[in-house]
Specification:
By secondary structure, the protein is an alpha+beta fold. It is about 25% helix and about 25% strand.
Length: about 120
């Protein structure tokens, strides 16, 4: 099964790239086209007043890993878990964070991406 790893669209009217990070994370650009994206990695939903001005920027786990590692994000609330959530690209996570994710676990597809990132770093 193909897994969505980055749910984003670009509004061609204002140029904004809008990312939905989690289920029901509905976002809209501020221009008159009102380009929208929703669904996080659970589902793809996007739109706008003029769909010819909406470009899919979606990335899937089967895409080139150089793209996947830059576009797939993991949410975190800091080391002690009390900070506001922030989203970090897999390529920007430090080695200790990657190892912690492996210990914590998660969906198989996500763990596979983390393992690929660790291997990528060893080779590069």
């Amino acid at each position: 099964m193909i897994q969505l790893v980055y749910n984003a669209v670009k509004c061609l009217e204002c140029g904004e790239e809008i990312v939905s990070y989690h289920r029901h994370d509905y976002k809209t650009c501020g221009c008159p086209n009102e380009t929208t994206v929703d669904g996080g990695l659970a589902y793809e939903r996007f739109g706008g007043k003029d769909m010819s001005k909406v470009k899919s920027m979606h990335v899937y786990d089967i895409d080139d890993f150089e793209i996947v590692r830059k576009k797939h994000h993991r949410g975190g609330r800091g080391i002690d878990g009390t900070e506001p959530i922030s989203w970090t690209a897999i390529c920007d996570m430090n080695d200790d964070w990657l190892k912690a994710v492996l210990k914590l676990g998660g969906p198989d597809w996500h763990i596979n991406i983390i393992k690929k990132e660790i291997e990528w770093r060893k080779k590069n």
